[in-house]
Amino acid sequence: MSGPVTTEDEAPAEGGCGDTHRELEVTDPHEAQVGRFRVRRALPRRARRTVGSWCFVDLMGPAEVTADRGLDVPPHPHIGLQTVTWLIAGEGLHRDSLGTEQVLAPGQLNLMSAGRGIAHSEEATGRYAGPLQGVQLWVAQPEVTRHGEPAFEHHAELPQVELGSATATATVLVGELAGAASPARRDTDHLGADLQLRPGTTVVPLEQAHEHAVLVVDGAVEVAGTAVHAGQLAYVGVGHDELPLSVHEPARVMLLGGVPFPDRLVMWWNYVARSQDEVTEAHRAWASGDEQRFGPVASPLARTVPDPPPWDRG
Description:
Helix content is 4%, strand content 47%. The chain is mainly beta. The chain has a single domain (7-258), classed as Jelly Rolls (Sandwich), CATH 2.60.120.10. A seven-stranded antiparallel beta sheet has the order 1-22-19-24-17-14-13, with no helix packed on it. Strands 2-3-4-11-6-9-12 form a seven-stranded antiparallel beta sheet, with no helix packed on it. The protein starts with 24 loop residues before the first strand and ends in a 27-residue tail after the last helix.
């Protein structure tokens, strides 16, 4: 359940992450196509490229799938990022070039670290039929790990914590919130949590060194007094130690945060790099079938190879 980032999603060579001291900034999502699904893409946007090391956020569904037809995202490559996959409804099957074959269900987390290169697919499970809804996120890997070996981990259970006066339940996907720490790998100082909000106001504790964003998954939320609707991303800059979230009806949001990412990113298709040359090298390796770099995926779906990036077209 990933990518791709294309030139339609904003200029691939841009790396600025915007003003990190904004009090509140609300941005609309962009619609994109992933496999058979239309998704709402909250990151990257021209005004807001990253939130901490979070560099990509897609809201997918809800949409109906069958046992044999799901997302149908064929084998494709990644470099320099971690995929964080979180389902709200339904099931999906992850396969990758490490030999992983893992079914993912709501409340469980798939985290794949690409490092120097990995390939994977996202498919129907062969058993589940019904609604599918979830969030796909990418984390830009720092210099110390982005050239490392690829890896995959699945977490069947994640910690939960009550926030406010029992007005919200937070599931911590990555990092730490209100004393609850996720067991998931974390290469940078960042946070990802799923908040299920009940009517009233929840004051969410924040780390002052982090910038944060609230992505509304379902419902409508007042973020620091500003109305934010499903699909929108509300950004809050560094220097805040709490954030009030108010709802009149139950709602669901993703809270993302982290220390502002220090490096300029170049993102194109499913690659996160620091230069166009790195993207070109990786894409040529994938297009040529270089299994030393990416490896095969045991998928019934044919691997996908798009045209080269625009700067590498003769």
